[in-house]
Design goal:
Shape: globular
Distance between the termini: 30 Å
Number of strands: 2
Largest sheet: 2 strands, antiparallel
CATH superfamily: MazG-like
Number of helices: 5
Strand order of the largest sheet: 1-2
Helix content: 55-70%
Radius of gyration: 17 Å
CATH class: Mainly Alpha
Number of domains: 1
Length: 112
Amino acid sequence: MKPKVEIIDMQSLDELDEKITDWGGDRGIIQNSTAKDQYLKLVSEVGELGDAIAKRDEEGLVDAIGDVFVCLSMIAGCEGHTVEYCVGKAWNQIKDRRGTLTQEGVFVKSHD
């Protein structure tokens, strides 16, 4: 799926995560905040994402997804991790799962 907005400076997510974490460190967020504090910020941003989805607000949706990623980077940084590491661990857990999502929105695992 192509982005609907032209991206001028294409970077990988791990590069962006590093820049975001550096940004947070430069502003004292990583050193002076906690994962709990950043989680509360994440919940606020997820609420904005839900609002944008409900209103079919494309610009708000894109902004909120980015803000959620920033919050996740801050949480990971506060705990001494990176989003890249955390997503890699999650991928290794789900990569071999089999199943399908029904029209009702229920994921049914296949039993091989």
